[in-house]
């Protein structure tokens, strides 16, 4: 499956969440990640994220698609992290 993950998290936890998300997905912009992931990897990612988060104040939003081809991505301005170089 293909996902876009967005988080809004307290500044004191941002570096831990960034490090976690980079293990599974491609970083495309501050607090925004995208990429192919299996269902089990997604479950694992969410479980680990919940351990980092303060669920009273932080949020994690995941947009899920069966395949990247069903999404159209348009970038206006400079792309923060070019993912076209991956093989």
Report on this structure:
The protein is α+β, with helices and mostly antiparallel strands and 87 residues long. It is built from two helices and four strands. Strands 2-3-1-4 form a four-stranded antiparallel β-sheet, covered by helices on one side. β2 (26-29) and β3 (32-36) form a beta hairpin. The longest helix is centred in the middle third of the chain and has 14 residues, at 39-52. It is globular, with a radius of gyration of 13 Å. The protein starts with a strand and ends in a 22-residue tail after the last strand.
Please describe the structure with a list of short key phrases separated by commas or semicolons:
single chain; 87 residues; alpha+beta; Alpha-Beta Plaits; 2 helices
